[in-house]
């Protein structure tokens, strides 16, 4: 055990993919530890991990252009693409390990093979995509990538992209046949169910309202029961380690914790909408995730894409996102979230970011005021035959982009994910958005290294058996169950 003065060893805040992933790792590495998970909603994965609140792309940098920027000399920088791809492969390795050990459902309950395509229009964009393809394919992780400017070939990959398109318009596409669609909601529920079987206590409609670190280093956490018939008086839980994986709710809780490392952070909320169709005729003609190029001033999370989505075994097509704006940090949050997050230490970074990102503000205003005709015009740039009667508008999840202090610029707007940990490693929280869920395993491994450095060496052999690429080995998806280490021996002595 970690600390005899603690009620629990680990307290997880938020019932999404991040907390679920950390629970899967810790219940394997330290099965004797006591773990509690608290989710303020009445069910798991109702915010960013909900499959209709994210694109479920399985971000592997196979089709996302923002991971392969063009340098001033015209060459393509693929460093981030390689990192993202490697991180997603870690997720695949862990999921396979758990499935092989009968800890996740077999079959395609949450993972579906779906080719990933990039589609661009215009000669300049086609030239960029060709150079991107030629650079990426020389790396082993992207050696299977295909490229074409031939409308007939592209139509074979994704017919809806080409049907009724002006033949004089130059187009180009790349295709990665091994791409995936991930139902992160189903995956989250399966991971948490496995953690419960291994002793984790899960509390729904349970909201963390206060965190206070005691002199002995443990955390006194105040919990409010949100059930209609729940106890009126809040209870307290003492935890040795706290992980705040509450999506948009993470920043306010980290601020309440008072840790120095959370000072200066602010959040800029961006909501989103998608067009969705379940028309069998359309769904049958498009089996791919197709990413395009972002508009000037648009954030990376707003890159347009036409996706095949498989949710609870049913297939649909999703197009978007259409960005919006709300003062809420969570889809089911409060309109006061943004206001109450403002602190003396983050006002200046927020103002400076706002002054330097007028193009983003202009873009958001345009998106918020967009009409049905505007949204249809954007869809038809991807799918010329789109008809409004076939599509419905749905509200997606809420994302909170990270604003943080910068020694030179005063404040910078980040579009990735940011892991914030206290100096003593007793609390950690995750801020930001994409690529988020797809790289949950890599992020949680980073957390283990930073928050439990005294156990890193003893855990390493077990982690390498679960994820062979951590040790420099190759992942063989066909390895047998008897090659796995018995769960009871895959942990260090507590």
Automatic annotation (TrEMBL):
It comes from the Bacteria. Gene3D superfamilies: D-Amino Acid Oxidase, subunit A, domain 2, FAD/NAD(P)-binding domain. Keywords: FAD, Flavoprotein, Oxidoreductase, Tricarboxylic acid cycle. Pathway: Carbohydrate metabolism; tricarboxylic acid cycle; oxaloacetate from (S)-malate (quinone route): step 1/1. The keyword Membrane does not apply. It holds the Pfam family Mqo. Its cofactor is FAD. It catalyses: (S)-malate + a quinone = a quinol + oxaloacetate. Its EC number is 1.1.5.4. Coiled coil: none annotated. One of its GO terms (molecular function) is L-malate dehydrogenase (quinone) activity. The keyword Flavoprotein applies. InterPro entries: FAD/NAD-bd_sf, MQO. PANTHER family: L-2-HYDROXYGLUTARATE DEHYDROGENASE, MITOCHONDRIAL. Belongs to the MQO family. HAMAP family: MQO. This is Probable malate:quinone oxidoreductase. It comes from Cellulomonas alba.
